């Protein structure tokens, strides 16, 4: 399962080197501050977990890194250079690939078309060059088999795969096209236990291949399985920022469940 | 540090694909968007062949093909646009706008008619661009944007024509320079040995072939399907969704212009009120041909089959000696059936097996 990732990962990635650095990054939508003062470092070969409840600012954070929205304050550095992305294409070109939970694939398109969407192989460079369909089918088929994803037919619509498989295809696609930083937006949110396991193993494989991974979730159990660094957001602010060695699963779970607020509530509701 | 999770080596050897079987032929055939339209076309052809003796002759086939081509040419563009997830309700009157502007510009200024032909192409493409630009820029559904364009163009067609010519039709343009060349390209009769067809039939088939090639064999086609199927997802992997959509609106505008030129060179004079209602016929042809209203699915060949069904029904009712007033009722029934068949097929194709 790790073959395809190890094979396509950038060999120049050295574990521990910072790939993306955010310093005091914030974003306002008009008068509403969705995110403020967030520091986040994504190192090669490490998984940075961003946890938070609904509306905590997780999506805003992803959108800034993946180029869907520009940030309005703070500094975003990629490979040490200050950047502000104007489109997802710019972010992709900088080696940052994002896998969204619900919009990872186009359901009615064939598996191979999804795999190569936006980065199609063509028979030539001229404007009307036709697609090299044979090559794309063979590559997609081979890559999926290496991952252990069994599809009846590479030509079937990707909507016929299970949620976990679709998620894995999207991750494999990102890595295949040379992503150095992988952003996973709630990859396990809609999945069952077994399928979540597949995605988590795949996340770990990407980390082991030297990629920097940003893992967004509201499930501390999943985060703790793969994470090296944990950040908890609440109402757009950072309320916890600890390395794996400094935090326990109980602490994470407690903080996610409401932390101090929950303790007060439990005291108040004491029976 | 990562001891809690160890990525396992592949459990299945890559060489032997376990559980991989070719999808059955039925499942692959039903996965094509145009299969419903093909069955319907065969049934309707057989039906009129049985009940209307004049329908069986080759000249009748030529008539049917001509009627089909006048719908089918624009329907190719509309089908691609719908696959890209948008509508164009202004396509019907935009055809008339193109024909009127070419005719009046050339006639009033006594120019070679090709000047009008070229300028009207620019006008048509500009209308398409404005439609597309407004849709992607504002995010307002294309249904509303193009409904507005539809009314604007309908009014402008009548108003400007009345202002310039004093009537609601253009003067006869057939004596202008360059008219014969235009007629040869846009409106001539082509003898094919056993049958003589209007040149629009050949253009129609060419456009369908081009549309199919774009959709299935080009990168642009991939982007069209993705933009309609899931625009956010397509954008996230770097597909220029906005450009694709604007391009599709301009494609419809180009094909509308082409049909407009046919009308001009075929009839020499253009009625300003023409074209209203045709936008829905184009949409019906596309939907009967398997295009989904929600985008992301459909085919150019399907739109041709849809247009052919339209042509057969349109002429078949006449050949059968029935009251042509029933035509629209029949068209509505066809649409309803097609939508239901397509829903079934889409669920079949998208469902897990």
What does this structure look like?
The complex is a heterodimer of chains A (271) and B (353). Chain A has 271 residues and is of the alpha/beta class. Chain A contains ten helices and ten strands. In chain A, a hairpin with a 2-residue loop joins strand 9 and strand 10. In chain A, helix 6 runs parallel beside helix 7. The longest helix of chain A is centred in the C-terminal third of the chain and has 16 residues. The model of chain A has no long low-confidence stretch (mean pLDDT 83). By secondary structure, chain B is mainly α. Chain B has one domain: ABC transporter involved in vitamin B12 uptake, BtuC (Orthogonal Bundle), CATH 1.10.3470. Helix content of chain B is 69%, strand content 2%. Chain B has 14 helices and two strands; from the N terminus they run H-H-H-H-H-H-H-E-E-H-H-H-H-H-H-H. Chain B has a two-stranded antiparallel sheet with strand order 1-2. Chain B starts with 24 loop residues before the first helix and ends with a helix. Chains A and B meet through helix 3, helix 5, helix 7 and helix 8 of A and helix 9, helix 10 and helix 14 of B.
């Amino acid at each position: 399962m790790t073959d395809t990732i190890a094979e396509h990962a950038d060999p120049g990635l050295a574990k521990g080197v910072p790939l993306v650095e955010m310093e005091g990054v914030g974003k306002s939508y008009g008068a509403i501050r969705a995110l403020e003062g967030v520091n986040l470092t994504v190192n090669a070969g490490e998984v940075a977990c961003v946890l938070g409840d609904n509306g905590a600012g997780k999506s805003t954070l992803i959108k800034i890194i993946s180029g869907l929205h520009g940030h309005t304050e703070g500094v975003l550095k990629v490979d040490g250079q200050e950047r502000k992305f104007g489109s997802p294409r710019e972010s992709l070109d900088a080696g940052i690939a994002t896998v969204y939970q619900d919009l990872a694939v186009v359901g009615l398109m064939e598996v191979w078309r999804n795999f190569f969407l936006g980065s199609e192989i063509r028979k030539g460079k001229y404007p009307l060059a036709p697609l090299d369909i044979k090559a794309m089918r063979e590559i997609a088929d081979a890559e999926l088999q290496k991952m252990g994803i069994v599809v009846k037919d590479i030509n079937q619509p990707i909507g016929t795969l299970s949620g976990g498989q679709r998620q894995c295809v999207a991750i494999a696609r990102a890595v295949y096209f040379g992503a150095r930083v992988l952003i996973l937006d709630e990859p396990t949110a809609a999945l069952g236990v077994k399928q979540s396991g597949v995605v988590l193993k795949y996340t770990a494989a990407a980390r082991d291949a030297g990629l920097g991974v940003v893992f967004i979730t509201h499930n501390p159990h999943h985060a703790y399985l793969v994470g090296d660094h944990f950040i908890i957001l609440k109402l757009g602010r950072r309320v916890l920022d600890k390395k794996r060695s400094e935090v326990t699963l109980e602490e994470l779970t407690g903080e996610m469940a409401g932390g101090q607020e929950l303790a007060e509530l439990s005291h108040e509701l004491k029976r | 540090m990562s001891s809690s999770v160890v990525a396992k080596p592949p459990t299945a050897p890559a060489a032997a694909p376990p559980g991989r079987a070719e999808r059955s032929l039925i499942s692959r055939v039903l996965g094509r968007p145009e299969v419903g339209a093909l069955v319907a076309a065969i049934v309707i052809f057989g039906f009129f062949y049985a009940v209307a003796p004049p329908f069986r002759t080759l000249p009748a086939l030529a008539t049917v093909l001509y009627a089909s081509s006048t719908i089918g040419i624009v329907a190719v563009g509309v089908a691609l646009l719908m696959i890209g997830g948008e509508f164009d309700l202004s396509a019907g009157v935009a055809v008339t706008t193109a024909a009127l502007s070419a005719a009046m510009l050339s006639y009033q200024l006594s120019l070679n008619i090709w000047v009008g032909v070229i300028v009207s192409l620019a006008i048509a493409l500009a209308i398409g661009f404005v439609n597309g630009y407004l849709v992607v820029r504002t995010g307002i559904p294309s249904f509303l944007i193009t409904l507005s364009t539809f009314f604007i163009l309908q009014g402008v067609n009548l108003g400007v024509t009345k202002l310039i010519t004093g009537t609601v039709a253009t003067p006869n343009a057939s004596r202008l320079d360059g008219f014969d060349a235009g007629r040869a390209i846009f409106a001539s009769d082509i003898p094919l040995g056993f049958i003589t067809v209007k040149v629009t039939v050949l253009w129609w088939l060419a456009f369908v072939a081009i549309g199919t090639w774009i959709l299935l064999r080009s990168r642009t086609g991939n982007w069209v399907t993705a933009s309609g199927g899931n625009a956010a997802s397509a954008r996230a992997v770097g597909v220029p969704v906005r450009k694709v959509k604007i391009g599709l609106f301009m494609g419809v505008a180009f094909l509308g212009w082409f049909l407009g030129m046919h009308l001009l060179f075929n009839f020499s004079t253009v009625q300003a009120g023409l074209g209203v209602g045709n936008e829905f016929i184009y949409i019906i042809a596309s939907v009967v041909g398997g295009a989904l209203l929600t985008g992301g699915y459909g085919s150019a060949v399907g739109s041709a089959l849809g247009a052919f069904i339209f042509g057969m029904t349109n002429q078949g009712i006449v050949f059968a000696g029935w009251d042509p007033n029933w035509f629209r009722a029949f068209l509505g029934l066809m649409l309803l059936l097609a939508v239901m068949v397509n829903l079934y097929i889409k669920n079949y194709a998208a469902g897990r097996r």
